[in-house]
Amino acid sequence: MDRILSTYSYGICLFSMEVLQDFLKKEKIRSKKLLHKFQKDKKLYLAMQKEGIWFPISKINSGQHLIKLEGYDNTFNDEWEQKFEIEGFNLKIEGGLWISDIGSFYTFNEGEFCGEAISFKTGDGDIQYSDFKYDVPAGKYLLSVKGFLRKEKKGFPNPNSGFLFSLVKVDEFSGFKNPREDIYNFNVTNM
Q1: CB contact at 8 A, 82 and 76
Q2: Global pTM?
Q3: Cystine design at 55: which of 14, 15, 160, 172 (Cβ 3.0–4.6 Å)?
Q4: Which residue, among 75, 178, 187, 97, has the nearest Cα to 141 in the 3D structure?
């Protein structure tokens, strides 16, 4: 099954629930408005990047994006063209990896993150997905992101853009990259 992520909040994020919960407990964060907290508190946000707690891809077009994780999904076929590759972001995983619409962090409800995916029904009655879980072994990883565009666009509900995520296991993190820096452009739809 293709994993088509519906993003209506102009962003995607990757995280491990167990790692995130441990970090929130350690930092004594009880707010459910996590996206606001992460955007407002730069010191906290940078600590999260350094420790590999939460990886945001912001400033992308909303809509349908085909999501793939190397080693878990088939790669993009010849109907797609790779537009970028950005690598070297820290990500710590315990108990699986979630790839989510960043809007899931507006009012975060950790109880919703059970099973393999979170879906919702549109006004037209269509089922769409805002979050997918992958059973990735625990560890520290360096994350790479590749952006793809469909060579010949198809109509809705077919996605015309997609992301391939790759993970390389490491013993320790050495430094970190901030995905919100202006040098990184993840908005594959406009390329």
Answers
A1: yes
A2: 0.94
A3: 14
A4: 97
Q: Are strands 139-150 and 161-170 parallel, antiparallel or unpaired?
A: antiparallel
Q: Phi and psi (nearest 5°) for 67?
A: -110, 130
pLDDT tens digits for range 142-177? 999 999 999 999 998 899 999 999 999 999 999 999
Nearest CA to 179 out of 187, 169, 191, 189 is that of: 187
pLDDT in tens, 125-143: 888 889 999 999 999 999 9
Residues in the chain: 191
Note the pLDDT of residue 115: 87
Phi/psi of residue 93, nearest 5 degrees: -125, 135
Domain count, the chain: 1
CB atoms within 10 A of CB 60: 22
User: pLDDT value at position 122?
Assistant: 85
DSSP run (H or E) holding 50? helix 42-51
Query: Is 182 exposed, middle or buried (CB count within 10 Å of its CB: 0-12, 13-18, 19+)?
Result: exposed
Mean pLDDT of the chain: 94
Q: Looking up tokens 């972001």, which residue turns up?
A: 89
* Token code pair at residue 176: 């970190």
DSSP run (H or E) holding 47: helix 42-51
In which domain, by residue range, is 149 found? 3-190
